[in-house]
Amino acid sequence: MAGRDPEAVAESALDAVAAVAPEVRDGLPGRRRYLDGENPSGERVLAADVFADELLESALGDADGVGTYASEERAAPVDVGDGAVSVAVDPLDGSSNLRSNNPMGTVVAVYDGPLPASGRDLVAAGFVLYGPVTTMVAGVGPPGEAAVDEFLVGDGGDREELGALHLPDEPTVYGFGGRVPDWPADFAAYVDEVEDELKLRYGGAMIADVSQVLAYGGVFGYPALESAPDGKLRLQFEGNPVAYLVECAGGRSSTGDGSILDVEATGLHQRVPVHVGNAALVERLEAALA
Ligand code: P6P
Asked: What is the model's pTM?
């Protein structure tokens, strides 16, 4: 429905993602095989990635007010309605964890306007975590102002609120992607400090690692690498939504040089260095990379 309040559309979009989450989870067994070809980021694609992507496109296309669907698995956005709201999805973040049976998730970013969009255009963001139980973490509202809540996703796809999430004052965990020899020297020096203070928690799925930071406090990053100065994670589908959620939960995000939400959107699959967590840890990172 064109012209509907973007935040109301966002709530419908989050409900739609929760509604199909049990079906995504139930469809994972038997879809661990790699398909031919690559996604727009040049990564191999699992049958589970395509399965989740198709389910989410259908569900979000039926959500009132959603006009555009975009996915990490597709080269271009898809028109799914006459609304002005665009939804960008990483259907299965960390899908390589499927074979090892480790947690993974669905990441959703709801933008008021066309894609690619700035993080400042977000009206909501959330993720479903396929862990020991299926949960959703989500916020609806202006960046930096929305409350972040955790929900239990029931077998019927309903959402039962478990409570608000706010970053603990005292950090406990850290996790950084990329290979140590590929870290720039200034980032490696920062990690040398942090690893003396916190416990390593890195599981290969951004959304599961960010969930640890939200629960226990700390810092997660996939930094700029010597071999990849823009890092690995995608701004539209990964960087912006986790920056929105962590900043709304009382933390900070940074490319290494300011909030991820301020990065100019230049392409649907553009990559960005991602660091999110407690403000003091992010501020120390920026000082180390200055
Ligand atoms: P690596 C998953 O493929 C992903 O996009 C993120 O979820 C995760 O943080 C990162 O890549 C893991 O990358 O290089 O550790 O396998």
From this structure: 0.97
Residue 94 Cβ contacting ligand 1 at under 6 Å: yes
Task: Assess whether the previous peptide bond of 116 is cis (omega < 30° from 0).
Answer: yes
| Span 46-79, pLDDT tens digits | 999 999 999 999 999 999 999 999 999 999 999 9
Domain annotation covers residue 255:
yes
Domain boundary pick from 124, 143, 164: 164
Return the amino acid letter for 83.
G
Which protein residue has the closest C-alpha to ligand 1 atom 12? Answer: 204
Residue 230: which domain range?
A: 173-289
For the CA of 94, the nearest atom of ligand 1: 2
Q: Which residue out of 222, 234, 236, 272 has the highest number of ligand 1 atoms within 8 Å of its CB and is therefore the one to mutate?
A: 222
Q: Which residues contact 109 (CB under 8 A, 6 or more apart)?
A: 87, 88, 89, 122, 124, 125, 236, 237, 240, 241, 244
Which tens digits make up the pLDDT trace of 141-160?
999 999 999 999 999 999 99
Residue nearest to atom 16 of ligand 1 (CA): 204
Supply the CATH number for residue 88's domain.
Answer: 3.30.540.10
Query: CA nearest 224: which of 261, 262, 174, 190?
Result: 190
Count of structural domains within the chain:
2
Q: What is the pLDDT of residues 204-251, one digit of tens each?
A: 999 999 999 999 999 999 999 999 999 999 999 999 999 999 999 999
222 shares its domain with 272: yes
Q: 90, 98, 106, 206: which to mutate for ligand 1, most atoms within 8 A of CB? A: 206
Do 21 and 68 lie in one domain? The reply is: yes
Please check whether residues 151 and 101 belong to one and the same domain.
yes
